[in-house]
Design brief:
248 residues; two-stranded antiparallel ribbon; globular
């Protein structure tokens, strides 16, 4: 929101990230239906529409919707197979779901007056923690205590191995933080910049520059929406590879 106050332009680019009850006012509790809940639901429905409704009439000559669904399916399947190995293909449905949800949540957030759930650590941290716990559980179930060899760099000089082991453990434990903050930070920063340009578009002298900047940033955010979904997904594959093949 931008307004003229005390002779200057005042705007609040971070107000767009406030989680508000969808019906009525009051405090937000864990069971409250909020604007974040709505846009996450819309992202889920969009994924369902693409993968179920768009492919139910499968044909040899695919429709546009079927082509998009098949391209996304093939792209992520190949990513999982290439990065994490063929034995990781059984995790493909989970990884593919993550990719599509993040992609659609990011894309829908670019609709004017919408809300961006992936700009909140509360959302991205849940996904990152789910990946982290999956990696730990799968690592121990598949490899037993051999999974701990992930932290022991056997190729390094013996004197350095304990030090490197500590570094590896710390690096492993902060994965959920970096995994979640990277996505939330990128989306929040982009939307905040768009809000700033939009606010300056109301100023007559710099309106053309602000509008041009807004268009450029908006186009960039479409690219960021896809890139961040890709980055989150490929890091999930990398982490899963460590669980399936922990040896250095």
């Amino acid at each position: 929101m931008a307004e003229e106050a005390t002779g200057g332009l005042v705007f609040h680019p971070m107000d767009q990230f406030i989680v508000k009850p969808l019906f009525g006012g009051g405090e937000v509790h864990w069971y409250t239906v909020t604007n974040s809940t709505l846009w996450m639901l819309l992202a889920i429905l969009s994924v369902a529409a693409l993968m179920i409704l768009g492919t139910r009439g499968r044909a040899i000559v695919p429709s546009r919707t079927q082509s998009v669904a098949e391209l996304a399916y093939g792209f992520i399947y190949k990513m999982v197979e290439d990065v994490a190995g063929k034995d990781a293909v059984k995790f493909f449905p989970y990884i593919f779901t993550l990719f599509l949800f993040i992609l659609f949540a990011n894309a829908l957030a670019l609709i004017p007056t919408s809300f961006s759930p992936t700009s909140h650590i509360a959302v991205t941290a849940v996904m990152a923690l789910a990946v982290f716990l999956t990696v730990v559980v799968v690592g121990f179930l598949k490899n037993g205590t051999t999974f701990l060899s992930l932290f022991w760099v056997s190729s390094a000089p013996l004197a350095l191995r304990p030090v490197l082991a500590v570094i590896e453990v710390i690096s492993f434990m902060v994965r959920p933080v970096s995994h979640s903050v990277r996505l939330a930070g990128a989306i929040m920063a982009g939307h905040a910049v768009m809000k700033v340009f939009a606010a300056f578009a109301g100023a007559a002298l710099i309106a053309p520059i602000a509008i041009g900047g807004m268009v450029a940033v908006y186009a960039l955010e479409f690219l960021v929406a896809a890139i961040q979904a890709y980055v989150f997904t490929i890091l999930t594959c990398v982490y899963l590879k460590d669980a399936l093949h922990p040896h250095h």
